TrEMBL record:
Family annotation (Pfam families): CoA_binding_2
Annotated InterPro entries: CoA-bd, NAD(P)-bd_dom_sf
The name this protein goes by in its record: CoA-binding protein
Top-level taxon of origin: Bacteria
Domain CoA-binding: 2-113
Residue spans crossing the bilayer: none
Length: 119
């Protein structure tokens, strides 16, 4: 299955990133949660560093555009096949940078894509 890095992962059950990690894992995807606070979600440690992760298929964003610039080169250097911009994370600058590197982008909800079998 597709390895997914969840940027903005949280151990707070009220957060969509929490739900996304659980749902991705339940659908059989390898998940790497990355966030700003240590914790656990779906039995996985939330990385607060910038772990090297070979073969990332998808980076799914749960970080607002105002907080994304510090993550640009980390995301792009992972060379994912695609970046998913969940609602509220849309960022034309990062989308342009990704396209220049041959990375697909999609403005879509991870939870919806998984629910309808289009992930």
């Amino acid at each position: 299955m597709k390895k997914t890095l969840v940027l903005g992962a949280s151990d707070n059950p009220a957060r969509y990133s929490f739900r996304a990690v659980h749902m991705l894992k339940n659908h059989g995807h390898e998940v790497l949660p990355v966030g700003i606070r240590k914790g656990q979600v779906a039995g996985l440690n939330i990385h607060t560093d910038r772990p090297q992760a070979p073969d990332v298929d998808t980076v799914t964003l749960y970080v607002g555009p105002q907080n994304q610039p510090g993550w640009y080169y980390y995301i792009l250097d992972l060379k994912p096949r695609r970046i998913l911009f969940n609602p509220g994370t849309e960022n034309p600058e990062l989308e342009r940078m990704a396209h220049e590197r041959g990375i697909l982008t999609e403005e879509a909800c991870t939870l919806v894509l998984l629910s309808i079998g289009q992930y």
